## 1
Amino acid sequence: QFPFGRRLPCDIYWHGVSFHDNDIFSGQVNKFPGMTEMVRKITLSRAVRTMQDLFPLEYNFYPRSWILPEEFPLFVDEVRMMKDSDPSWKPTFIVKPDGGCQGDGIYLIKDPSDIRLTGSIQSRPAVVQEYICKPLLVDKLKFDIRLYVLLKSLEPLEIYIAKDGLSRFCTEPYQEPTLKNLHQVFMHLTNYSLNIHSGNFIHSDNVNTGSKRTFSSILCRLSSRGADVKKLWSDIISLVIKTIIALTPELKVYYQSDIPAGKPGPTCFQILGFDILLMNNLKPMLLEVNANPSMRIEHEQELSPGVFENVPSPVDEEVKVAVIRDTLRLVDPQKKKIKDVHNCIMFHRDSLLRTVSAFCIMWGMKDKQHKHHSLKLSLKLKFYLKLGSCQTLEEASEAKEEAREAGAGDGGERGGSRSPEAGLPSLCLKQVFPKYARQFSYLRLVDRVAALFIRFLGVKGTTKLGPTGFRTFIRNCKLSNSNFSMASVDILYIDITRRWNSMGIDHKESGMCLQAFVEAFFCLAQKKYKSLPLHKQVASLIDFCEYHLAALDEKRLVCGRG
Ligand code: ADP
């Protein structure tokens, strides 16, 4: 708790909604600056779209989306073109207001002309998205999955996924959308907050039944039907890592603005709620990411008309308590201290062994006893050695188990130095990054573009690049030549910046935002490396810029020394 008037800093700050406190100079905060903005429907769709432009196949887990109002004409044109090329295509679309939650303001349409343009669209930006018509059904009902993901660190990137999640069910049997059933929210929308008002909603104490179940119970059902559950998990892990890779570039811009490098500040971590829909072929599709997922473990029950009582919800409790407990275990500041002690013991293990032998001799222990103590101690030291080299808590648990089996007694936890991990269940959070980094690192191109952007931002605390910063970027990276004059550079800057700022995203600062810079960067890459596919053009330009900047840094270093 942080009682009013407390002066001492805390190890962990647990903010309710978003990162909001600029007076924290140490410790860890459970929110990243800018995360709430990043996962809004429009921003998320934009970030994913940038990745879809670069890697269309890798990012086909997010439904095709258009941003309203500005892309309304594009939406109309593209749908018409697709219908012309495939007359049998009878799509449905879902319109979701930006920043909405709990199904608020969502509706389904069959044709672009059905969008409610009058009044609301100008005042309320939205995303219109292809509706997934063939979801996987269980008990004839549509359901979605809420998975908890811990973003433990942004730099270096560290991601954990909870091994279990929640499945939230609709309360009317599903039918593919028709003009007649489009409005039936209990059939099409899986939101708990909506379905709870249906007479068919079933509160259950059993995690395998009812309108809210554990995801593991669904996996059991699928597995008994012969589904490849391992493949499903690996597709979900891939979806989560790719989505976070899409979010990290802009998050880094927010981070350096709120917590500038080199100044005292906290580090951040955050639990995110991923909403995922399974298609009937078991392909997971991302619906949205929640920056502030509900951690309630109770639900309201109406005892008599108008009289409500909070009662425990075993399904929520089973999943959410484990997520919070293990998040705290992973970010535990004590863990670092314990690890330092282990490292110290490793360092001094030889001298320790000698000292203990000397004591045994001094105290006149019989040879047998002496040997037994030395053996036990050496086993214990071996255990510490192994524990000290463990990268994850999962590995540490395994090392402890081995030590116990080898006869190192309590695994080094007896007495006052009992580990806080002792007696806790195994971790429900599974590390997926950097564990699978090798498989996904090639996708992190925009991250490298963001690093260039941040380098040229100049003034600390800003999120937008001024015209001088952009010119310096072009000059330092040697991108201007006889075909691309500095006058053209200025025109490019003005054109792109004006367009992005007219979309009315953030009027607080003037200048070029990261997405505008990314667009300009893609333009430059296309100009310079004409015949390659876009991701190769962009990768080549990044290499080119990084090479020139490294050369420049070296030159400056030499000059500085001189
Ligand atoms: P909110 O933040 O308001 O909950 P969501 O994007 O999660 O908005 O959408 C609400 C619900 O609508 C989802 O839980 C899901 O059941 C349904 N839904 C959303 N997008 C799609 C889609 N593209 N295809 C099918 N169903 C969808």
## 2
Amino acid sequence: MNLPDEVAGSLLFAGVDRTGLEIAAQALRPLSFGPGQRVFEAGEDGHALYIIQRGKVKISHCNLDGKEKMLAYLTSGKIFGEMSLVDGSPRSATATAVESTVLYALYAEEYWSLINRYPRIAHNLARILAQRLREMNHEVEVLTFEESRGKVAYALLKLYRQEYGRETARGRLLELTQRELSDLAGTSRETVTRVLGEFQRRGYLSSEKGQIEVYDPAGLENVLYDLE
Ligand code: CMP
């Protein structure tokens, strides 16, 4: 079996040669999920990491008051579930397929034998974790200090930097609803609608039902750093 391009092209396999990819293909198990179906729940034991071939996965967490906090939306080529695999602790968040989704699971045993032969894969996983930690440090700052425009700008930039969605001639097309964006930004739907309208007038993006095309990430960054 050959790995699909989206999986072979994930950061986890950066710098791994063809033979390594063939061995990885033997170790990975494809799994399908329907819209709304759970991949796993926060608190469960975790024995696998997952690479998204296609579809969309929501990573979320329930606060003590039962409110769902959105941590991320992930699409093709992205990885999740690596934290429990690495440290053996329970799942830190819940993963749910938002639409029809195909994942490739790498179970712990296969992971260990793969990184024994290809230590590069373990290093790549460390890179993924380092990126997430950087993002989180930034996020703590933004969520503590920024007003709602900054929160929306930040959520859009985060998706942009994670290469969510797809590249277009003018920028990047993010396929997500205003509801999803407001959950991610931690603001109300009404605020997102108002702020997107403003960003559109400024030429940073255009927004239509279920999709936002970002043209000017630098403009969004200026919102964040009050440089407009
Ligand atoms: P794990 O703890 O095994 O299960 C939940 C997964 O969600 C976790 O691994 C990460 O892969 C992912 N995850 C947790 N927090 C975040 C976050 N803030 N952004 C993106 N992904 C996350």
